[in-house]
Structures are given as structure tokens and as C-alpha cells.
């Protein structure tokens, strides 16, 4: 069983890159499940129904979110009615949307998708560890294939989640920082781990934003409005192979596509 996960899609450059590359990636890797993080898809902040539908048309089976889940207010109009979109499960009870979902695979298998948000350097939320423990126990009764998108700032918190869920889920992959890490591995219990999948967005930028604006913020401390950089994009993601029936990860491979790493069909 193979999962293709695409990192945070940032603004229109990221969307354009996803539209171009996702069908080609699916043709090359032939994944059973395709998941995309879309929390920065609408001008870097949140997602709209139009954009979500485009992601599905281009080949995404499900969309995960993060701390920008509700930045675009349009999301309140559709998130409750769209089971293919998940926001962090450890948000307060009563928050619109859902924190986990199930995705049917191309071969009839089923993947449980759990979205979590870290608490270090991010707005307050319920404990992601206890939330994960509860949901994993629930979904394991239905499928052995379980994917966790850990949307967090701190590497230590992401690593802690990986070890906490070691042997209990198929993969824990981090999002949020927009910088792909090179620490992919299979933990001893059979859980694939990567601290951050990276982003699909402007390459010569600062985390997808215009360099000049971010530099002004650092140099002056004055309030500024960050805007998505309109430059050539990159694409980051990851492929995870899972053993049939057990859900244990057997391999994990990073995906990097940019000017220095051209896509090979």
C-alpha cells in the first residue's frame, strides 16, 4: 500500500505547481492514497471551497490543514459537509469540521488520516498526544493503515509524537515549517517518520513569502503584511510504502522538485 503526501501548498504559485505535477507524480508512483496539506492554499492563509475542489480534481483524495485552518472565513460554509478535509483534531470540542477521516484507496484499502497541531510556539489547543492516543485506538478497529499529519513548529514536539505513536500508526509526517527535513526513517515499531514534508510554493522566498517584506519585519520590528512571493515554485512531498494487512511502513522516500532537482518521469 502506497501513500503520496504533499507538503503545505502556498498560494497561487503552489497551486499552479500542484496542478502541473500532481497528475505526473501519481502516474510515476501509482499511490493508493494521495493526501495534500492545503492550509496555506488561499493567498497563504487557509483554503476556499473552490481551491479544495480544484485539489480534488487534480488528484488529491484528502486535504489536511493546520493553524491557518480558519483564516479564510469561507471555510465555515463548507468544512462540516466535506469529509475529505480534516483540521487539527485537538481543537476545542465544538470546532467546525473533523479531526480525522477515512480515505478509500485505489485498490479497495482504507487509510485513516489524523491531523494534529502542536502547542509549542503556536496558539493554545488541547493535548495532541492524548488526542492522538484516543483517535488511534478508535481507528485501528477499522484499518491498520494510519497516517498522521503533525502540524507543529518545534522539531522536538514532532519527534516526540513520532516516538509516542511508534508501532501504533503507519506514518507520522510533520508540516508547518515549509522546510523539508532530511531525517526520514522507519522507527523500530514500523512507523515511518519525517520531521517536515516541506512545501509546494515559491522557492526563492522566505517560507513562501516575499523576501523583502519578511526582511523588513526582522530589521525594523514594525508590523507588516506578509504576501506570497510570485516566483518559480518548488514541490516537496513524501512517499510511504505500507505492508499489506499490518500497516507497518516498509519504506519512506522524500520528493524534491525544483530547478536543481528536475522531475524525472
TrEMBL record:
<feature type="binding site">
    <location>
        <position position="39"/>
    </location>
    <ligand>
        <name>Fe cation 1</name>
    </ligand>
</feature>
<keyword id="KW-0408">Iron</keyword>
<dbReference type="Pfam" id="PF13277">
    <property type="entry name" value="YmdB"/>
</dbReference>
<keyword id="KW-0479">Metal-binding</keyword>
<feature type="binding site">
    <location>
        <position position="8"/>
    </location>
    <ligand>
        <name>Fe cation 1</name>
    </ligand>
</feature>
<feature type="binding site">
    <location>
        <position position="176"/>
    </location>
    <ligand>
        <name>Fe cation 2</name>
    </ligand>
</feature>
<dbReference type="GO" id="GO:0004113">
    <property type="term" value="F:2',3'-cyclic-nucleotide 3'-phosphodiesterase activity"/>
</dbReference>
<feature type="binding site">
    <location>
        <position position="40"/>
    </location>
    <ligand>
        <name>Fe cation 1</name>
    </ligand>
</feature>
<dbReference type="InterPro" id="IPR029052">
    <property type="entry name" value="Metallo-depent_PP-like"/>
</dbReference>
<protein>
    <recommendedName>
        <fullName>Metallophosphoesterase</fullName>
    </recommendedName>
</protein>
<feature type="binding site">
    <location>
        <position position="151"/>
    </location>
    <ligand>
        <name>Fe cation 2</name>
    </ligand>
</feature>
<feature type="binding site">
    <location>
        <position position="178"/>
    </location>
    <ligand>
        <name>Fe cation 1</name>
    </ligand>
</feature>
<feature type="binding site">
    <location>
        <position position="39"/>
    </location>
    <ligand>
        <name>Fe cation 2</name>
    </ligand>
</feature>
<dbReference type="GO" id="GO:0046872">
    <property type="term" value="F:metal ion binding"/>
</dbReference>
<feature type="binding site">
    <location>
        <position position="67"/>
    </location>
    <ligand>
        <name>Fe cation 2</name>
    </ligand>
</feature>
<feature type="active site" description="Proton donor">
    <location>
        <position position="68"/>
    </location>
</feature>
<keyword id="KW-0378">Hydrolase</keyword>
<dbReference type="InterPro" id="IPR005235">
    <property type="entry name" value="YmdB-like"/>
</dbReference>
<comment type="similarity">
    <text>Belongs to the YmdB-like family.</text>
</comment>
